[in-house]
Amino acid sequence: MAKKVLIIGAGYAGIEAALTLNKKKKKDDLEITLVDKNQYHTLLTELHEVAGNRISEEGIRIDLRSIFKYTDVNLVMDEITTFDLKNNKVASEKKVYEYDYLVLAMGSSPNDFGIPGLKENAFTLWSFDDAVKIREHIKKCFTLASQEKDKDERKRLLTFVVSGAGFTGVEMIGELAIWSKSLCKEYGIDRKEVRLVIVDMLPRILNTLNEKNSAKAHRYLEKKLNVEVMLNTRVTEVTDKSLVVDRGEIPTRTVIWAAGIKAADSADKIDVERATRAGRIKVDEYCRSLEHDNVYVIGDLSGLSDEQGRPYAAMVENAIQTGHGAAMNILSHSRGKEQKKVEVKFHGTMVSVGNYFCVSEIMGKNLPVWLSIVMKFLVNIHYLWEITGFRGISRYLYHEVLERRQRKIFLEKHWSTRMQAWWLTPLRLFLGGMWLYEGIVKVTEGWLSSPKLASFLGMASDATSAASGAASYITRIDEVLPIKTGIINFLLGTESRLVEGATISAQNFIKVDLFNFGDFNLVPWFLQNVVLANDGIAMFFQVLVVILEVAVGLMLLGGAFTFIGSVISFGLLTMFLTSTGLYEESWWMILASIATMGGAGRAFGLDYYLIPYLNNVWESYWKNRKFRLFFKRSLDRFE
Length: 639
Fold this sequence. Notes:
The chain has 19 helices and 29 strands. It folds into 4 domains: 153 residues, FAD/NAD(P)-binding domain (3-Layer(bba) Sandwich); 210 residues, FAD/NAD(P)-binding domain (3-Layer(bba) Sandwich); 181 residues, no CATH class; 37 residues, no CATH class. The protein is globular. With 639 residues, it is of the alpha/beta class. Helix 1 runs parallel beside helix 9 and helix 5 packs antiparallel against helix 6. The strands form 9 sheets. A 5-stranded parallel sheet has the order 5-2-1-9-20, with helices on one face. It has a 5-stranded parallel sheet with strand order 11-18-12-13-14.
């Protein structure tokens, strides 16, 4: 009979536990069920981007069905309200769930510390709904302020306070500072009227980072974003018109609370020992609760401690690693094997302050701002690749790069403009036809059987580049517009064929010389000493050119792997540009190659089916460790 594994909570920890169990169970007879009150997984680390209107809310929400597609995990949308751990049962208002192994992964919730008025009058930023609610409230404040005649009320509407200068608070105020500039322009409000404040009772912001990064972020907030940073300041009360602190009162209609978390409210009813005052559940080194050896607690809810007895920080890495460790221990226990100690290793932290500033500490190193921004993108991409494959990455980049809502620099405004892929279909077909024609011509000319490359490159030993075999014409090169820098030389010239002093034909061409110093020219040197070193090597490159031309032609005509085909097309043209030169009838092909890189095969091409299919094959393999080319829903498309 199958052993039942019940996982409650579809956050980072719960998803990792479910995917690990599905991937590693092999022949184990397990029934894996994941219960969550929502039908989607939320990227909690990106909530501030929705609250600050950087991206659409759809950019942080991932349908659970897409994550667990091609797995044996049963998804249930329900909210567990009672826990009978002694009898291996939990229940919602509608149903009772029995289990052999229980994984508690409900995460955490904001901690109000009993501050008067906070629950009623402040916004929290700890869920998908929270982020959307804050965004809409901020819009409403600017709308009301633009028509408010009372100066005091207008001041309250345009004052925004974030309480808590940790990761969430700093990221939230950073997004708001960037967005407020656009809002002021949209609603006709002077930016000087907007007051942004971040409050914390500690002596510095981002207290878990080193002092250098903390100070760098502090300066950026004050100097670049005009944010008031109030430290060593304790919140005593929140009203509907102000935030009361120990040094006075800040009139405001907006208080965003980001000053601490505790165990999820849904875990309050569980009768187990707690590890911290914030309600995290005490566990042993295997992530098991102390009272029940078949109950595992992971993520923010878990009180798993380090060697010094300090509970690990409530961060994504902790959630993923405890989720993985608990899943492996469940498998070991069900197989009668020894369980392993769960250890959490933190690799680093990154905190973004608006679009263009980020501080990070990776493996003990302080990275520069630009690299910190890149690393934040890469970390999110890596996570999404693990749970959703290429679909998740493309969706993430779509929202973060193409559909970003906040102020954009000049280039961003242009590259984020979209067009329908089918407009590129005629260009893709024409470019593919030209490459196929070029390849076929070379085959008919004997490129697959006898040396032709030296003559083609103008390096034949019989100097055919200067005169024909019958000496019926000579070739003259006229430099029309040379631009010589030594490193890169550009030449716009005219090649004329002359017979007895009369011009019979003339063609314009472009050529680029790379690293041309005196008598040394990099590309001719490479061609003579490598490509044309001997007949065997020359034939290899010659045949390769033909194969690539035919392959690119077929790829573009069929719309299969169009991006790769376009890159190869661009590469071949670049090779011609730096060797023989590129004649005017072929110049358009460089621009066409660039244009067709932008998804030209997604419309009226095989990529419409091929790319989703390959992603589905990868997802099925990654989540099940079984390679299959055909299976149910393998041809499903994704949007």
